[in-house]
Design goal:
Layout (H helix, E strand, L loop, with lengths): L1 H7 L1 H7 L8 H18 L3 H14 L1 H5 L5 H13 L12 H18 L17 H13 L11 H5 L3 H18 L17 H12 L16 H10 L15 H15 L8 H4 L6 H8 L23 E3 L8 E3 L3 E6 L8 E6 L5 E2 L2 E4 L6 E6 L5 E9 L2 E2 L5 E8 L7 E3 L13 E7 L1 E5 L6 E5 L5 E6 L11 E4 L6 E7 L4 E9 L2 E2 L5 E5 L9 E3 L6 E4 L4 E6 L8 E6 L5 E2 L1 E5 L6 E6 L5 E9 L2 E2 L5 E6 L7 E3 L5 E3 L4 E6 L7 E6 L5 E6 L4 E7 L4 E9 L2 E2 L5 E6 L10 E3 L14 E6 L9 E6 L5 E2 L1 E5 L4 E6 L6 E8 L2 E2 L5 E4 L10 E3 L7 E2 L4 E6 L8 E6 L9 E4 L4 E6 L5 E9 L2 E2 L5 E6 L8 E3 L4 E3 L4 E6 L8 E6 L5 E4 L1 E4 L2 E6 L5 E9 ...
Family: Belongs to the filamin family.
Protein name: Calponin-homology (CH) domain-containing protein
Keywords: Repeat
């Protein structure tokens, strides 16, 4: 039919529309709309489109003139017929936009018309003629949508005024030609099998236009009017620029402003009204029809667009507006950034100390952040005022006060050097740098004395000209170098290749050698290269280390790897580069630093710096330490599995530290083994290379950092591997005998390499024999040769198993009873702050480790230094800081020696009677900080301590800070009543300690306000607010209501220092409202409230709640659950309002859907999203029902037995007529719905979600016979199947 019409052309259309005087107006519009729509979307030739339109409008002009609703189309048809007699020339006068206007007008009037009965001819014999244009139109609709369902309804259904079919036909036209078919701006073609639904396509386009609003539907998300305002402003920028500031309560005004602007300036007619778009029950299809006009809408010329300006978002920065640092005659530069403020004009006013204006150069950079470069040259000393305005308003912090100092220094004494000034080596897109020196050291030949040439005061400034002469394209960052007085670091990044001119100024004058010519090389694929390894770590490398790192170039294209290393003094270090066999594009680089200091490692690929190059490496001096680290965690590991290594101090004294640097943060656990070793565990959460730093006294030990390669998660889990047996026990293993144990990997979840190693105390390896038993277990044994500690390490897949490493002490037996302890440190006469020592003699005790512990009278550890004298004895040194009885514990081979514990009396060595305490008063307000001084002038330095004991025996240790004459402490008393302040010096109480201080109460800074403090109505909540934000001291809030009858009180914490209080007075009369804070009345308390009689009360005692949604056994998560509220005892015809609020376990409150059944009962529908108890507050006319709050437990899962299906479509059906039934999944949990139908022919089924826990299923069989309908939920048949 389509092909026939297309080929027949206007002649056939003219003959088809001759009997228009016999047609109903609605039928004509439907037929005309169908023809125009089809030919507009299917024809590519404008001539053919205009020919069709001319014939349609000419032939029906008479009929159009006879209809009152056709006035707009009459005007168009008149224009067509009068402007050209030849329809082939119509395209010169009618644009595609005109065609769209005709189509839109037809659609609008047809939608209005469809709300009334279709007109019928007056003569019965003429009824058949009305079907003729539909015979032409319907085939176009049936064949036009590709892949759509064929409408087999007879054309007489439309003639017979079947409204549902007519509206369905109109919606098919809208859905296909307005939403599915057109290509919108910014869209890319999508294969039909992957294309979204028309609804999702329109929603995706809107979400892309308005990303700042959560728009997920075509109904409720549009009700406040802000969404349509945002869409109008996105399509026509400036039409509604202030939509973000619109008040959601004025939703109709918001929608009307936006829709009026869209209609006037975007040609989007109002197919729906503002009152409809703001209604939560707005028709979804009507909204889609209206919104589908926006993708092709264009802003008309002359539209009153308004920019959104916000001067408060403008910021200014740079040395030219800093309070200090600018000099007379030196350029003062700063930058103004307007990115977030909109489009406006920047104005800068410079006022000198005399109030006169001075010139300022302002240049727009036209960059991404919309910045302006500003520069002025101060002409006199004093305070300048820099005023910066945006669109006539001051920006934040404007005006800026700038103190200008005297004349600048001598630029001839300033020099600059660095890679950023070299003629070659700078690459596009890579940051480079150089340094500017305003102080230079010189050495004279005769005296060999050093002198310093100082340039004086001045500002360093840098201007870089790109190859086109633009000076604001490349901007330099200038900062002083910490620790190098008079040295400034300048960094910049070139954005295009070519010769750049780097101009360096000091106090506005170029320094010697400036400008510097820098030839910037073009970018390459060096950004795809990266380096790994210890040799490029910022710290850890030491002199004489083989510093190794690797350069990875795979995927970077053609090019050579280059490494250039500069050591202290700019001396270039040799580096060898070798390709790694078996690893494509990987190069091993090795250098050996010979001097400590800062090294710069430049790594290039194709003469361009790779990622993160140059690397700054701080090389430390050579250090030989006894501290050793070993273990699998220093080499590698697996994501989310523990990486373990061991550090042994071997008697060296120092503070150990650890840090992990890598792709993710890694939690570190350290376990002190008490034998001079520690097991360190870290937990990487992302794959990649990690640098494991092992520190002693804050310095990396040799070989640190260790580079560990962490691989992605695996199927095996080393944490479930078990190792046990006598060979792993701490004691009991003897020399020259096999020590056996077993490793069980059966629960690890997968196969992985098993590695077992053993070494003695001197780190010499001991052979371990491993036998695979073939069942996931391994038999292992080793034979120790020395009576020393042995360490057994077991890894599975490179990860340490639980309890490893195992430490086994191979013996001959030890005898702690033969250990002797003697010396002045365990005898009488020990005094505070006087070093002392004692000897531990183990010569006759056999093998074993010595451990010494020392605690003071309070049980606090006292540091000791233990020295191995290499003759079987150990010297233990310590210095007591406080007097009292100390306890010395001595262990040998993990057993306490007979003399231990040893009690040592420590006597004071300082006369604390000379210590004075100042600033301590007998009384002190609660919560008010006070500072006291502890004066110890003339006494040896010792620790001062302050301790406060409250009336409730709460103890607070107050930190002290050293001062010139002693120390000081600041504290506040938080409880009322007498406190004890204990002050000690060198561990001894000072005179008059403890001091007694009484904490007194002050009036609380708490306010109360609200109508409930003045009065209310009986049996209705009276509400007021309490504000505690100004009160700094903690305290409890007290509330009580006194009056003719007891009033229940509820208090809600607003989480902002305020709370909302509600009480319900049951009878009228005067009430006293008492509010206290910390047991103290707040200002105005008690408040006098007058309660008047209220309206007749409602008796809610008979209201009940029941149903599956309140099942004591619990309900399922993520699915609608329903229960019933029976209020027939109050109102049989359900006149009251029921509301239910669900509070999740995390405290989030959600409203529910309440349906009034009209018979005194209400159905409540809610969906829990968090596992655990849900609290449901149910009210009737804002009064809680007797069972409220209800509690029900939400749990995960589903139950197909709770799904029901019903409806006529499950009992019988008629061919070519839809069969309908409903599936009710309320309370069944989260699961998928499966539908199937088997019968004589394949019959498709359509399922529509009703958004209430049910869905409607429709099918239409085309052949009679028996059919089986299958309904599954979560792959299980529902009851009744």
């Amino acid at each position: 039919m389509c092909t026939f019409l297309f080929r027949s052309g206007p002649a056939l259309l003219e003959s088809a529309y001759r009997p228009l005087s016999l047609l109903g107006w609605g039928f004509f519009k439907l037929s005309l709309l169908t023809q125009i729509w089809y030919y507009m979307e299917s024809s590519t030739s404008p001539d053919r489109q205009c020919n069709v339109l001319a014939v349609l409008l000419k032939t029906c002009k008479t009929s159009l003139e006879s209809r009152s609703k056709g006035h707009k189309l009459i005007a168009l048809s008149s224009t067509v017929s009068t402007k050209s007699g030849d329809s082939s020339l119509l395209h010169e006068f009618i644009s595609i936009d005109a065609l769209r206007k005709i189509r839109t007008q037809l659609l609008t009037e047809l939608c209005e018309y469809s709300c009334y009965p279709l007109s019928r001819p007056g003569v019965v014999g003429q009824v058949r003629l009305t079907v003729q244009p539909l015979a032409l139109a319907l085939p176009l609709v049936q064949t036009a949508p590709p892949g759509g369902h064929r409408n087999d309804q007879q054309r007489t259904d439309i003639v017979d005024s079947k409204l549902k079919l007519i509206l369905g036909l109109i919606w098919t036209l809208i859905l296909h030609y307005s939403i599915s078919m057109p290509m919108w701006e910014g869209e890319e073609p999508t294969p039909s099998e992957k294309a979204p639904t028309p609804k999702q396509r329109l929603l995706n386009w809107i979400q892309g236009k308005v990303p700042d609003l959560p728009i997920n539907n075509f109904t409720t998300d549009w009700n406040d009017g802000k969404a349509i305002g945002a869409l109008v402003d996105a399509v026509g920028p400036g039409l509604c620029p202030d939509w973000e500031d619109w008040d959601p309560k004025k939703k109709r005004d918001n929608a009307k402003e936006a829709m009026d602007a869209a209609e006037k300036w975007l040609d989007v007619p109002q197919l729906i009204k503002p009152d409809e778009i703001t209604n939560p029950k707005v028709d979804e299809l009507s909204m889609m029809t209206y919104l589908s006009q926006f993708p092709n809408a264009k802003l008309k010329p002359g539209a009153p667009v308004r920019p959104r300006l916000n001067p408060s978002r403008v910021r200014a920065y740079g040395p030219g507006i800093e309070p200090t640092g600018n000099q007379v005659g030196a350029p003062a530069r700063f930058t103004v950034e307007t990115f977030s403020a909109g489009k406006g004009e920047v104005e800068v006013i410079i006022l000198n100390p005399k109030g006169a204006k001075e010139p300022c150069e302002v240049n727009a950079n036209n960059d991404r952040n919309m910045t302006y470069s500003c520069c002025y040259v101060p002409s006199m000393e004093g305070t300048y005022r820099v005023v910066v305005k945006f669109s006539g308003k001051d920006i934040p912090k404007s005006p800026f006060n700038v103190k200008v100092e005297g004349a600048a220094g001598d630029p001839s004494k300033v020099t600059a050097a660095g890679p950023g000034l070299e003629k070659t080596g700078v690459v596009v897109g890579k940051k480079t740098y150089f340094e500017v020196y305003t102080q230079q050291a010189h050495k004279t030949l005769k005296t060999k004395a050093k002198t310093t040439a100082v340039a004086g005061k001045g500002t360093v400034d840098v201007a870089i000209l790109d190859p086109h002469g633009h000076k604001d394209k490349v901007r330099a960052a200038i900062s002083p170098v910490v620790g190098k007085e008079g040295t400034y670091l300048v960094e910049y990044t070139a954005i295009e290749p070519g010769l750049h001119s780097v101009n360096v100024f000091f106090s506005g004058t170029q320094i010697p050698g400036s400008p510097f010519g820098v030839n910037v090389a073009p970018a390459s694929n060096a950004k795809a290269c990266y380096a790994t390894g210890r040799g490029i770590q910022p710290r850890g490398i030491r002199v004489k280390d083989n510093a190794v790192f690797y350069v990875h170039t795979k995927g970077a294209g053609e090019g050579g790897v280059g490494v250039q290393i500069f050591g202290p003094g700019g001396v270039e270090e040799k580096c060898t580069i070798t390709p790694v066999k078996g690893e494509e594009g990987v190069y091993e680089c090795v250098y050996k630093p010979v001097k400590p200091g800062n090294y710069i490692v430049n790594v290039t690929f194709a003469d361009q710096h790779i990622s993160k190059s140059p690397f700054k490496v701080e090389v430390a001096p050579f250090w030989n330490t006894k501290v050793i680290a070993y273990g699998p965690g220093l080499e590698g590991g697996v994501v989310n599995q523990p990486a373990v290594f061991t550090v042994e101090t071997n008697g060296e004294v120092g503070a150990l530290g650890f840090s992990i640097e890598g792709p993710s943060q890694a939690k570190i656990d350290c376990k002190d083994n008490g034998d001079g070793s520690a097991d360190v565990t870290y937990f990487p959460t992302a794959p990649g290379e990690y640098a494991v730093h092992v520190l002693c006294n804050e310095e990396d030990i040799p070989k640190s950092p260790y580079m560990a390669q962490i691989v992605p998660p695996t199927q095996y889990w080393a944490g479930k591997v078990i190792a046990k047996g006598p060979g792993l026990e701490k004691n009991g293993v003897a020399t020259n005998k096999w020590a056996e144990f077993t490793v069980d990997t059966r629960s690890a979840g997968g196969k992985a390499p098993l590695h077992i190693s053993c070494m003695d105390v001197d780190y010499n390896p001991v052979e371990v024999q491993v036998k695979d038993n073939g069942n996931g277990t391994f038999a292992c044994k080793y034979m120790p040769k020395k009576n020393v500690k042995h360490t057994i390490t077991i890894t599975y897949g490179g990860v340490m198993i639980p309890k490893a490493p195992f430490r086994v002490y191979v013996s001959e037996p030890s005898n702690p009873a033969k250990v002797k302890v003697y010396g002045p440190g365990v005898e009488k006469g020990v005094k505070t702050f006087t070093p002392t020592h004692f000897i531990v003699d183990c010569k006759q005790a056999g093998p074993g480790d010595v451990a010494v512990g020392l605690t003071d009278e309070k049980g606090m550890d006292v540091p000791v230094k233990t020295t191995d004298n290499q003759d079987g004895t150990f010297t233990v040194e310590y210095e007591p800081k406080s007097p009292g009885k100390y306890t010395v514990l001595v262990l040998f081979a993990d057993k306490e020696v007979p003399q231990s514990p040893i009690k040592v009396q420590v006597e004071p060595s300082i006369d604390v009677s000379k210590v004075k305490v100042v600033g301590l008063e007998p009384t002190q307000p609660i919560g008010e900080p006070r500072e006291i001084g502890i004066i110890s002038r003339g006494l040896p330095k010792a620790e001062s301590k302050v301790k406060i004991v409250s009336p409730t025996n709460q103890v607070l240790d107050v930190p002290t800070t050293p001062t010139g004459d002693g120390s000081k402490a600041t504290f506040a008393l938080l409880e009322p009543g007498p406190h004890k302040v204990e002050v000690s010096y060198a561990g001894q109480p000072v005179p008059n300690s403890p001091f007694h201080v009484d904490a007194i109460q002050g009036a609380p800074k708490v306010k109360a306000y609200g109508p409930g403090l003045k009065g209310g109505e009986a049996n209705k909540p009276a509400i007021f607010t309490i504000d505690t934000r100004e009160e700094k001291s903690p305290g409890g809030l007290g509330l009580s209501v006194e009056g003719p009858a007891e009033s229940p009180i509820q208090c809600k914490d607003n989480k902002d220092g305020t709370c909302e209080v509600s009480y319900v007075p049951p009878v009228p009369g005067p009430y006293n409202i008492n509010v206290t804070y910390g047991d103290r009345p707040i200002p105005g308390s008690p408040f006098k409230a007058n309660v008047v009689p209220g309206k007749p009360g409602i008796d809610v005692s008979g209201i009940k709640a029941y149903g599956p949604g309140l099942d004591p056994a619990g309900v399922y998560l993520d699915c609608p659950n329903e229960f019933t509220v029976d209020a027939r005892s109050v109102s049989p015809n359900a006149q009251g309002k029921v509301r239910a609020i669900v509070t999740s376990p995390s405290g989030q409150k959600n409203d529910t859907l309440v349906k009034n059944n009209g018979d005194g009962t209400y159905n409540v529908l809610y969906t829990p999203f968090e596992q655990g108890p849900q609290k449901i507050d149910v009210t009737y006319e804002d009064l809680p029902i007797p069972q409220s709050p209800l509690t029900v437990n939400a749990k995960p899962g589903c139950d197909a037995n709770k799904v029901k299906a019903y409806g006529p479509g499950l009992e019988k059906g008629v061919t070519d007529e839809p069969g309908v039934f409903t599936v009710d999944m309320k309370g069944a949990g989260k699961g998928g719905l499966g539908l199937g139908m088997e019968g004589p022919v394949e019959t498709p089924m359509q399922c529509q979600d009703n958004h209430d826990g049910t869905c409607q299923v429709v099918y239409q069989p085309t052949k009679s016979g028996p059919y089986d309908i299958s309904v599954k939920f979560n792959e299980q048949h529902i009851p009744g199947k």
